[in-house]
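can u do me a favor
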């Protein structure tokens, strides 16, 4: 059983996907952390995220990142991740890893941008989680504040909009709902309500 949870930055898809995985006893993969790990490796070696060759080499030697590494979550790495994610060679390496993961019994929940469209088009359930950009910027701000980081709301909103545009307009695996995805707008929902709404959508799938 595969549950695909796609959506834009800070839409609530990660929290939701993690809860669904624990509810069903499935494995969970935050696929954004793979692109973040590639981006971090590129930046650490002093290259720029627009350097396709450096990004490809980093993707080829990708090992499962430590998701709790705070360096992975910085705004610089978020922006760089969406740049390296536009390179087909990077996506090809990451694709292989994700498909193997998705096949792990008894089931898996993967969250990302292209899980329902490209990585697992055969997924049993596809959710596309959205929220208004202002709500998403606010959530990200609170998330970072909880980790002791002070960010500017307007800058965060601009970064989120820029990342949405890059993710939606790239030539390969752009962010978009699969034709058979169930849409869930979490703008006015707290975590628990969003989880209950997702369960209802899954039961109706
Ligand atoms: O947590 P947040 O929603 O901010 O971002 P993320 O899921 O960690 O993804 C970081 C970046 O990786 C995105 O902006 C995308 O450019 C890229 N990504 C992707 O292209 N495909 C995926 N399946 C997951 C992430």
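np, heres the sequence
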């Amino acid at each position: 059983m595969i549950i695909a949870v796609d959506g834009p930055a800070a839409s609530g898809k990660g929290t939701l996907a993690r809860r669904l995985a624990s509810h069903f006893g499935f494995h969970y993969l935050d696929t954004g952390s793979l692109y973040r790990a590639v981006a971090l490796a590129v930046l650490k070696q002093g290259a720029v995220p627009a350097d396709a060759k450096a990004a490809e080499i980093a993707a080829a030697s990708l090992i499962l990142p430590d998701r709790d590494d705070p360096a992975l979550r910085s705004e610089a790495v978020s922006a760089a991740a969406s740049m390296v994610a536009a390179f087909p060679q990077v996506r090809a390496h990451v694709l292989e890893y994700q498909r193997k993961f998705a096949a792990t019994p008894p089931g898996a929940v993967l969250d990302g941008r292209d899980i329902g469209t490209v990585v697992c088009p055969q997924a049993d359930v596809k959710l596309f989680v959205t929220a208004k950009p202002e709500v998403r910027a606010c959530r990200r701000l609170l998330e970072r504040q909880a980790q002791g980081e002070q960010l500017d709301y307007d800058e965060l909103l601009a970064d989120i909009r820029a990342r949405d545009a890059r993710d939606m307009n790239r030539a390969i695996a752009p962010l978009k709902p699969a034709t058979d995805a169930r849409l869930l707008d979490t703008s006015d929902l707290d975590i628990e309500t969003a989880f209950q709404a997702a369960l209802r959508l899954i039961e109706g799938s």
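The pocket of cytidine-5'-diphosphate is lined by residues 9-10, 14, 31-33, 35-36, 78, 81-82, 85, 112-115, 163, 167 (CB under 6 Å). hope that helps!!
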